[in-house]
Design brief:
This protein is mainly β. It is built from five helices and 22 strands. Helices cover 8% and strands 32% of the residues. Strands 11, 12, 13, 14, 15, 16, 17, 18, 19, 20, 21 and 22 form a twelve-stranded mixed beta sheet that branches. A five-stranded antiparallel beta sheet has the order 6-3-2-1-9. Strands 4, 5, 7, 8 and 10 form a five-stranded antiparallel beta sheet that branches. A hairpin with a 3-residue loop joins strand 13 and strand 14.
């Protein structure tokens, strides 16, 4: 049931809306107002929220996240935003919600979608402690919009003031960064790709130094970029990959002037401080229903490994059998000196990609197999907010955006991902077109899996960013 404060607020709104109608009592809200408010006050936020954000505004309100009814914004065509707010303390003053839409890096494109939540029926001054509010509204960008993306911001304002965003993705103007959406002007981005060369067992000595010749020849992701917009990161981090018949090897190189961590236990929340992360979606569909694994380590070599049978359904009792080694160029936890960085070697059993599943497509891999993966680095330099960078930026505040993962292709010892077909000698008396195989020629790989097409050849190193 709504308290008296909400009833009075709704009555006032009803009186404004229907002041010319004698049938409408000025102190009784309409049935539609009451129904709309009740239907949009939730007991819990949806578990399937498309863009989880969890930004804190001075401890008073949390912007939980947002849903959007389209994957691509079409200029000139309206689309629906659904915002989720949690009220930690009531805001009795004249605070209001603002929603801004902009092209990245172009303040001149600014669009204002400010409004009173729940269709004008539940203003901020009526919000109660504990409310979880679902606010649905329609927006659009002009038909002449040329930018390939739309950034969506939210927050609370009163006169010249805005509630300060104390945690979560935001800009310097105390605006929560809700999401970055592609527009119809955007050409579908080609997924990033890296090819892992195969090495002989025993080639890699797990010491965190990455000094074997195989590492020097391994393909690199290139410098990680900012997770929210793909921009250049403040400090450099990258990853390299190799494999043998039992293990996937991942080598991270991280520039870091302040190497530290207080976390030492297995499955501690490593992502809250300084860490490197890898996600593996071996089935490779990029869907929320995929089963995938999340693997992390930090400057102290602590391990976090988790199996997820669906989107964000972490099961942290999973043991991947992963081993790590870390080498720090500097002093861990001495905050008043200047470090250079740290390197990491991960030795991941190929079978770990299945998580708790007994079987999974593409596991174990063979030459030409493709997994969807992503690499991340979390940095928390002294006196600054935590910063996240990635190989393939999710462009939202969610590292579990499976559809944004890049492609890890398993190559042979030379980095090739498929054998070049050769034309066998023609059978005696057979007539064969120049360059064409004889009719009875058999590809041993095709014989094993006649339905599987040959993988296209790929370079040993990914294209530059």
């Amino acid at each position: 049931m709504f308290d008296r404060k909400l009833r009075v607020a709704l009555s006032a709104l009803a009186a404004i809306a229907f002041g010319g109608c004698v049938e409408q009592s000025p102190d009784v809200p309409s049935e539609d107002d009451i129904k709309a408010a009740k239907e949009n006050l939730l007991s819990a936020p949806p578990a399937t929220m498309k863009f989880p954000v969890n930004a804190d505004l001075e401890g008073k309100v949390t912007y939980l996240g947002m849903d959007v009814d389209t994957d691509v914004v079409t200029p000139g065509k309206a689309f629906t935003l659904t915002h989720y707010w949690k009220v930690n303390e009531a805001l009795p003053d004249d605070w209001r919600v603002f929603i801004h839409l902009e092209a990245p890096g172009n303040k001149g494109s600014h669009l204002n979608a400010d409004h009173v939540p729940i269709g004008g029926k539940y203003p901020v001054h009526s919000w109660k402690k504990g409310d979880i509010i679902r606010d649905i509204h329609r927006v659009s960008v002009p038909g002449g919009w040329k930018a390939p993306f739309v950034e969506i911001y939210a927050g609370l304002w009163k006169g010249p003031l805005r509630l300060k965003v104390t945690s979560g993705p935001h800009d310097a103007e105390n605006r929560v960064k809700c999401a970055v959406l592609p527009t119809a002007a955007t050409k579908p981005a080609e997924a990033k790709k890296i090819v892992a060369k195969k090495v002989k067992a025993g080639t890699i000595k797990l010491d965190g130094k990455l000094d074997e010749p195989a590492w020097k020849e391994a393909a690199s992701t290139g410098a990680f970029v900012k997770t929210m917009d793909g921009g250049k990161a403040e400090s450099v981090a990258d990853a390299k990959v190799l494999w043998d018949d039992k293990y996937l090897y991942v080598g991270f190189t991280i520039e870091d002037a302040d190497v530290w961590s207080t976390l030492t236990q297995r499955d501690d929340k490593l992502w809250t401080q300084e860490a490197v992360e890898m996600f593996i979606d071996a089935a490779g569909d990029g869907k929320d229903t995929d089963h995938y694994v999340e693997l992390q380590t930090n400057p102290k070599g602590a391990i976090f490994d988790s199996y997820l049978p669906g989107y964000r359904k972490n099961q942290n009792d999973f043991d991947a059998g992963m081993k790590v080694a870390v080498n720090v160029d500097g002093t861990v936890d001495k905050r008043d000196d200047k470090d250079k960085g740290w390197t990491v070697e991960m030795q991941i059993p190929l079978e770990a990609a299945k998580g708790k599943d007994k079987e999974m497509k593409n596991v174990p891999p063979v030459v030409g197999t493709t997994w969807r993966v992503n690499f991340f680095r979390m940095d928390m330099p002294g006196g600054k907010a935590q910063q996240g960078t990635a190989w393939s930026p999710p462009l939202v505040g969610d590292f579990h955006a499976l559809g944004k993962f890049g492609l890890l292709v398993f190559g042979d010892e030379k980095g090739a991902t498929a054998s070049a077909p050769t034309a066998p000698a023609a059978a005696p008396g057979a007539l064969t077109a120049p360059g064409a195989p004889a009719k009875d020629a058999k590809d041993p790989k095709a014989a094993k899996d006649p339905k599987k097409p040959a993988a296209a050849a790929a370079p040993a190193a990914p294209a530059k960013k």
